[in-house]
């Protein structure tokens, strides 16, 4: 298993609501859970399928025939960015797509808003695809594991399932557009007092 730092960019109405994500201790929830309020283990197993993961990554805003609404409203997955490298063959150059920049683009909804909230967190990755296992995230950015072409590969996506637990969220940052400088700057940081550093998982103990 691999421990991976990630960033989640979101747009929320106010600083209060952004800080409440940490203060309430509920973690980052998938859209499906937030929409229906209550979910069950059998429902989770039915939702965590390769077909739904493909819809989440490649057809997020398309209408789901089973619900008549965009799949995004019912997705059990949570998109995070860890950054990635794109190889440009024509220029023989490797292009770096940084996680925070991608998260900021999502949080501002491609520049439609002049501020965004970025949550830094960590997840556990499986070394290969394991969609049905709730406790590990999928490394969508890894072309060795996910070989099917995706127009969104450069987003450096790591996909969590159902929830990113509260104690895996380190902090929230607010980024605002500095109009004179025409760039985004960090306005404040809100730290999580219940955060558990991932180093507690680095040592594996064998059976006695």
The CATH class name reads Alpha Beta
Structure class: alpha+beta
Total helical segments: 5
Please give the number of β-strands: 12
Rg from alpha-carbon coordinates: 18 Å
Q: Give the total of domains.
A: 1
Task: Give me the side-by-side strand order of the main sheet.
Answer: 1-8-11-12
- CATH fold title: Heat-Labile Enterotoxin, Chain A
Per the principal axes of the C-alpha atoms, what is the gross shape?
globular
Low-confidence stretches: none
Instruction: Measure the end-to-end span.
Output: 22 Å
**Oligomer kind:** single chain
Average pLDDT reading: 92
Approximate helicity band: 10-25%
Task: Specify the CATH architecture.
Answer: Alpha-Beta Complex
Query: DSSP strand (E) fraction?
Result: 25-35%
Characterise this structure.
This protein is of the alpha+beta class and 208 residues long. The chain has one domain (2-201): Heat-Labile Enterotoxin, Chain A. Helices cover 19% and strands 32% of the residues. It contains five helices and twelve strands. Strand 11 (169-178) and strand 12 form a beta hairpin. The two termini are 22 Å apart.
Short description:
This protein is α+β, with helices and mostly antiparallel strands and 208 residues long. It contains five helices and twelve strands.
């Amino acid at each position: 298993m691999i421990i991976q730092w990630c960033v989640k960019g979101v747009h929320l109405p106010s600083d209060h609501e952004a800080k409440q994500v940490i203060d309430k201790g509920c973690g980052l929830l998938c859209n499906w859970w937030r929409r229906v309020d209550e979910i069950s283990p059998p429902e989770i197993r039915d939702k965590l399928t390769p077909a739904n993961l493909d819809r989440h990554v490649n057809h997020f805003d398309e209408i789901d025939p089973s619900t008549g609404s965009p799949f995004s409203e019912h997705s059990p997955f949570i998109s995070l960015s860890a950054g990635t490298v794109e190889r440009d063959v024509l220029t023989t150059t490797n292009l770096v797509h940084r996680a925070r920049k991608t998260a900021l683009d999502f949080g501002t909804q491609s520049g439609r808003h002049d501020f965004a909230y970025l949550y830094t967190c960590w997840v556990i990755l499986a070394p290969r695809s394991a969609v049905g296992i709730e406790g590990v995230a999928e490394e969508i950015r890894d072309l060795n594991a996910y070989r099917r072409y995706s127009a969104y590969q450069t987003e450096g996506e790591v996909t969590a399932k159902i929830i990113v637990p509260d104690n895996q969220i380190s902090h929230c940052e607010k980024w605002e557009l500095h109009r004179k400088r025409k760039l985004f700057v960090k306005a404040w940081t809100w730290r999580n007092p219940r955060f558990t550093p991932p180093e507690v998982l680095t040592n594996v103990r064998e059976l006695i």
